[in-house]
Amino acid sequence: MDDARSPVEKTEREWRAELSPEEFAVLRQAATERPWSGEYVSTTTVGVYHCRACDAELFRSTEKFESHCGWPSFYDPADSSAVTLHEDRSLGMIRTEVRCARCDSHLGHVFRGEGYPTPTDERYCINSVALRLEADDSVA
């Protein structure tokens, strides 16, 4: 397995040293950033979205769409093995949590069957602070 795909395992202390307090809260403690506050909510920049914690490729701008929900939305991950899905029963409801497959960081949630005109009818609702966009400078 190459380095870009090998699992990342760090202690809580190591994560705290590498991440800002907000990044740590979202990525490692499953917090949620305030709606409409993230840097990627409305961006239309062409590129690849990576995990802010481990740099794994997660989503591409070609699968990003405007859902008007307050967080960046994607209808499909860049690679089906890039994320893992977990049942989340917090907040008195059942949701599907999305985590980075490489470092197990919390990214957001995925919702299905909401009727968006996308090929998958899924909305990966992802915290901006969990992502880092690598812009494709070859597209102007």
TrEMBL record:
Coiled coil stretches, renumbered: none
Annotated ranges, domain MsrB: 12-136
Record-listed E.C. numbers: 1.8.4.12
Keywords, ordered alphabetically: Oxidoreductase
Reaction(s) this enzyme catalyzes, per UniProt: L-methionyl-[protein] + [thioredoxin]-disulfide + H2O = L-methionyl-(R)-S-oxide-[protein] + [thioredoxin]-dithiol
Major enzyme class: oxidoreductase
GO-annotated molecular function: peptide-methionine (R)-S-oxide reductase activity
Protein name, entry field: peptide-methionine (R)-S-oxide reductase
